Amino acid sequence: MNSLPGTPAAPSHDVLPAPTVQCHAANLVLLPDGALGCAWFGGTQEGLSDIAIWFSRLAPDGSWTPPVQVSDDPARSEQNPVLFVAGPGELRLFYTAQSAGRQDTAEVRLAVSHDGGRSWEPGRTDVPARPGVGVFIRQPPVALDDGRLVLPAFFCPRPDSGRWVGDDDYSGVLVSSDGGSTWTARDVPASTGCVHMNVLRLPGGSFLALFRRRQADAIHRSHSPDGVTWSAPVPTELPNNNSSIQAIVVHDGRVVVAYNHSSAADAVERRSSLYDEIEDPGQPDLSDEDTAARPGLAFWGAPRAPLTLAVSSDGGRTWPVRRNVEEGDGYCLTNNSREGLNRELSYPSLVQTPDGLLHLAYTRFRQAIAHVRLHPAWLDA
Description:
mainly beta, Neuraminidase, four-stranded antiparallel beta sheet
């Protein structure tokens, strides 16, 4: 698409190769050789045991390489990959592994590549589940000035009765002083309902965290002087639909967040849980009556669209600049990709390359990972 004279070029769109029926939860990383890497999970349907982690590189000619399958556990659903460059010859990929739709059984695993993601060592358990509490990730680690690593996480307690639906999930950071060999958890206070903690280092050295909200009301934020101790999350002016977000600090110091500009207030129906389509023996589904009786708790089914970028110049306190990258109805009352029933535009990931361009990857209808290139000036146009 051509731009008007004197205006920034419109974003360019392409789609990564899709080797599986379902593709979801992209995560981008800038590799040491200047290439862009992308990981996601794919298979038949989220929660099923054929869900595995895939990886592709953006080649110099602008095309994505054929995806490489990183993980393959026939007993668990492997989800939410997170990429981290630990050194010139070490690319780490953290991901979760759970039994069926039970996020309360999830553990964090780690796979390592020494050739930029072209091949991978077998994955291993890196952070085991606590007794009755699963551990989940979605956002990349942050390296502190003192050498410690901080991996944002959230924890999924098993309910006293019934199956996991996310009502009691809460956030924390996993802190390592030995390069990731061992981790110590530090909970974020009063964070029940806040998940997908996204830690950002702000100009000046303090830290901002942005959160997805199980209640599908608003993106929440928290602040930290050191990246380890955090304030209780408070709502921002941006809505959230209980779907993932991701933010980065761009070269000019502003914060750009990718998210769905929608919330429970935009929903016409409600799901009982994320995994209500999966039969799981011994794990009863919630009835319609149970779902209706849970106001204020986890809300599933709010539209996952439009896919929006917002910009803050004051460390995440206000977000006056907002532009939609793609619009749609965001229908997500089903995860069905085989019949094309799902129409969400969700789970964004952002990277800025040295040339200043922003790269955005996100789920498109749970059938493919979309990739968008855009100039930051387009946001202000």
